[in-house]
Amino acid sequence: MVGREHEQAQVRAWVAEALAGRGSLVLLAGEAGVGKTTLARGVLAGSGLQVLEGVAVQGGTAAFGPIVEVLRSRLRSEGAGRLIEGPLAAHLALLLPELGPAAPEGDRATLFEAIRLALAAIAARQPAALFLDDLQWADDATLELLPALARSVDEQPPLLLLGAFRSDELPRGHPIRRMRGELRRAGHLRQVTVEPLGAEATAALLERTLGAAAPSLRRAVFDRTDGVPFFVKELASALAASGRLESGPSGLELLEGEDVPLPDSVRDAVLLRAAGLSGDARAAVMAAAVAGQAFDPELVTAVAGLDEWPDELLRRGIVTEAAAGRMGFRHALVRDAFYGEIPWTRRVTLHRAVAQRLEAEGAAAVLVAEHWALGRRPDRARASLLAAAEAFGAVHAYRDAERTIRRALELWPEERDERARLDVLERLARCAELAGDLAEAITTWREVADGRRREGDPLRLGTAHRRLAAALELQGRWEEALASREQAAVAFTTGGLPADAAAERLAAAAHLRSAASFRAALSLLETAGQQARAAGRVDLQARVLGHEGNCRARMGEGHAAVELVRAGLAMALEHGLAGPAAEIYQRLADALEHTGDYAAAKETYDEAFGFCAANALEPTAQLCLACLTAVLRQSGDWDRAVTLCRQVIASSEASFHAHAVATGTLGSILGLRGQGRRARPLLLESLTLARRIELAAMELLAAWGLAIVDQTEGATESAAGHCWSIVERWKQTEERHYAVSPLRWATTFFAESGDGAGARTCAAALAQIATDAGQDEAMAALSHALGETALLDGGAEQAAGQFARALALLRGVDAPFDRAESQRRAAAALAMVGRREEAVEHLVAAHRTARRLGARPLVERVAGGLAALGERAERRPGDSSLTRREVEVVRLVAMGHTNREIARELFLSPRTVEMHVGSILLKLDCRSRADAARRASELGLLAP
User: Fold this and answer.
1) How far apart are CA 622 and CA 640, in angstroms?
2) Residue 729: left (phi > 0), alpha (psi -120 to 50), or beta?
3) Is 35 helix (H, G, I), strand (E, B) or coil?
4) CB neighbour class for 757 (10 Å; exposed up to 12, middle 13-18, buried from 19)
5) Longest pairwise C-alpha distance within the chain
6) In terms of DSSP bridges, do strands 159-166 and 251-254 run parallel, antiparallel, or are they unpaired?
7) Where are the beta strands (DSSP E) in 134-265?
8) Which residue in 50, 565, 750, 830 has the fewest CB atoms around it within 10 Å?
9) What is the mean pLDDT of the chain?
10) Checking phi first, is residue 578 left (phi over 0); if not, alpha (psi -120 to 50) or beta?
């Protein structure tokens, strides 16, 4: 191609990668007529790749239109068995009925996978290029599929995905912009921008089209066309065909005189070239322009009122033959030129005629609707649009369905058939939900609710508010969501459905529990319990009991609260209600945790997980594991907690709550172990998610983890900011358990930083918690905090007494990290009053605990305390928290042995050695074997 050497080289490089087995997605962008299609076809021709080409259709198409075009063409040539085999063939049959019966159930992800496998099967026989043209007109489903294909293109047989779109036809909010953003975030965006030609390249193209051209003609053509190749060729051909050129001394030049002006646009050039068409040809080309870029010549002939298709259009190159007996305009700009020439009254008539024939032939409803709309028949267009939306929804193309329904509503006559309009609005809201367009869903559900209220239908009003609340929750708009839940409950009560009203209030109470607003939750639970009993719904009654007992346990009501949860669990199990029982099982373990009985909590979480797994309740099972990790962290079983956290994070079934807990717990353990680089992104992810879902516990714990990381890295100002955020967030809640450890740690941080105001604020918060909860763990934290404030006031003897009381209270609490911190601070107080031996004893005990936990920063602080007293914490393998076997492995790693060599040396399997090496890297916070060897040497682990 003239002037396209750089762009060709770029695309050829990606073709070469595809031939080498590394597929990719490449986008060609540029304004209309710059030659994107010509560039793509030119590079692909002779590339060694089999070319699969699909074209998006302007004005309407079925879901996955250009993809279906490609697959259907391959199906005709190779047969069904060669396209896709196995259970996913039934899902692909949703798009290709000729494959056989379609799957009765499925989802978008499964359909995407079926399409991917079909394309992979084609590429497996010969490396392929899938070229999709005119993507600016593509349906949303196709544009949503492409990023999914781009994610897997490296893992399948060689396939180059090549798409072209007009960059001058992308208004704000166009789906291509969303697709490009998704590709960019995933690191998969490869785009070639095809610009208009420069003056020299335009002159070269002009001469290739006409022959030698005089400088005056070159300048005139470039000035008029701005270097757009299609315009250059059309203008040159039009000037030659109309006799407006003559030979001059330097080549062809324009005739002189004002009666031969240059065409002002592509449209003028096309029409100039088409001057002299016969009447039949002109009637046919006008009807074809109405029918679309590609069309059926028989349909066009009938609509134009002709006996046969005029071959004149083919001879002149205005249209070209396409596959399967169809024709198409040589370029979309040619079609646009002729369409613009049709008087609007004639357009309306032609669109109606095309719509009638397409409808009779069973064409895609969205295409029929487009013609009815342009034919000024809104009622018939609306019916076709709604049918099209149904078809889009059947193949999970929800964004296309949403767009189509919205167009149908735009055509709805004012103040007519309001009930039917509300029904359609409900369909729009559901499609918006499924498409992930929450803003549209919320706006639409509000409109539906207003309409149902006006017509006095309480049951459908309740349903609208229920769906509105769910959408608001997904956006984190909890105040509005809770209000909508209550409106739904009121509507259901009015409509005589107490069970539905109870379910709404129970859902609201569950959120308030997570947000640590326990009194508000209990108020809702009281009403929900009454309505559940009135409805005779045992499942709701059991869940209410479970939630009530859990809220009371979180408020410090102890074993009486736990018994309420047990009563709810017994009720659910007695009636064989697996789902409610699983939920209440988790609530029971949580209630036990809040009483400080960590051993019973761990046992109950394990039992709850087993129950959920046995009943295929995977999301609740993952939540049980996630909550168990928080108990394991507090009770010092950090290695198991890390393993379970990673399991939950990797699970596709984990809820937002489970994910927030797992990422936050893993991040906090890594932070406590001094692995800040790994901890920080996990803690930030947890904090962001916890704020969005108002999970107060993880807001506090994640902020604490970030403060720990900041302190370890020397960012004391940032650490102080996180500590103050813990205090402020706690004040907004009724949290009395998860705030204890963060506040006791923050008290020590402020005290050691010399911030008396911060330390006293945290101590006051702990005093309120201890008063409300009255449990040993909270009382110990208060004593610890009072010890810190006493030290700030110079009362070392008093401080030693408070720390001693804290340690005494912690004897019955399984909280080794908190105990080690109190031992460290008690030692500081004891040293000040001359009780050196007791101080050393406390520091040695703290050092032993910190080593066992692998809490490196705490190990170093305790070792510093010992050094200040003239003692030395003997460095030995346990300092790194490595097991004896891991020490043996790291010594051989440092000697340069491979895993297989280490396995032979220690009589282990290579897989076992690999697991040991992974554990060593994690515990030493290293990325490579060399780093691990260096770190082991620093810790004195390599000595015999």
Assistant:
1) 15
2) alpha
3) coil
4) exposed
5) 115
6) unpaired
7) 159-166, 190-193, 245-248, 251-254
8) 50
9) 90
10) alpha
Q: Residue 794 has which token pair?
A: 């110079």
Q: What average pLDDT score do residues 572-596 get?
A: 95
Q: Which positions ≥6 away from 294 have C-beta within 8 Å?
A: 55, 57, 322, 326, 327, 328
- Pairwise CA distance, residues 905 & 897, whole Å: 10
Distance in angstroms (rounded) separating the CA atoms of residues 704 and 507: 29
| Closest to 398 (Cα-Cα) out of 430, 364, 446 | 430
- Tell me what pLDDT residue 594 has: 93
Neighbours of 418 (CB within 10 A): 12
- pLDDT for 85 equals 73
* Residues in contact with 763: Cβ distance below 8 Å, sequence separation at least 6, in sequence order: 747, 782, 785, 786, 788, 789
Digit-coded pLDDT (tens) for 494-551 = 999 999 999 999 999 999 999 999 999 999 999 999 999 999 999 999 999 999 999 9
DSSP 695-757: -HHHHHHHHHHHHHHHHHTT-HHHHHHHHHHHHHHHHTS---STTHHHHHHHHHHHHHTT-HH
Cβ–Cβ under 8 Å, residues 900 and 910:
yes
The sign of the dihedral angle between the CA atoms of 753, 758, 759, 765 is negative
CA–CA gap between residue 497 and residue 853 (Å, rounded): 54
Q: Given a cut of 80, is residue 876 above it in pLDDT? A: no
Give the span between the Cα atoms of 802 and 795, in whole angstroms: 11
3-class DSSP state for residue 294? strand
Between CA 420 and CA 411 the distance in angstroms is 13
- For the stretch 683-686, contacts whose Cβ atoms lie closer than 8 Å and that sit 24 or more positions apart, written own/partner, are 683/709, 686/660, 686/661
CB atoms within 10 A of CB 670: 26
Give the position of tokens 């373990």: 589
Q: pLDDT tens digit string along 808-825?
A: 999 889 899 999 999 999
- Residue whose C-alpha is closest to residue 293's, from 319, 329, 347, 267: 329
Residue that the structure tokens 């370029």 belong to: 331
Q: Which has the closest alpha carbon to 824: 868, 782, 793?
A: 868
| CB atoms inside a 10 Å sphere around CB 834 | 9
What does pTM read for this prediction? 0.80
Residues in the chain: 944
Dist CA 556 CA 553 (whole Å)? 5
Residue type at 702 in one-letter notation: A
CA distance 593 to 599: 9
What angle separates helix 398-410 from helix 418-434, to the nearest 10 degrees?
A: 150
Weakest mean pLDDT among 99-103, 190-194, 657-661: 99-103
Contact of 664 with 687, CB cutoff 8 Å: yes
Token pair 């460290």: residue: 824
Residue 384, exposed/middle/buried by CB under 10 A (0-12, 13-18, 19+)? buried
Contact 195, 68 (CB under 8 A): no
The Cα 582–Cα 607 span in angstroms is 10
pLDDT at 263: 67
| Residue that wins the pLDDT comparison between 429 and 224 | 429
Tokens linked to 471: 């959408």
Q: Give the CA-trace dihedral at 799, 800, 803, 804, to 10 degrees.
A: -150
Q: Where are the beta strands (DSSP E) in 96-189?
A: 128-133, 159-166
Strand partners, 164: 28
244-270 tens-digit pLDDT: 788 888 888 887 753 445 567 778 878
The single-letter DSSP state of residue 879 is G
- Rg from Cα positions in the chain: 36
What are φ and ψ of residue 419, in 5° steps?
-65, -45
The residues with which 258 forms a beta bridge, in sequence order, are none
Q: What's the angle, vertex CA 653, arms to CA 483 and CA 481, rounded to 5?
A: 5
For the CA atoms of 669, 673, 678, 682, the dihedral, rounded to the nearest 10 degrees, stands at: 20
701 closest CA partner among 674, 737, 676, 733: 737
Closest C-alpha to 433, from 464, 485, 470: 470
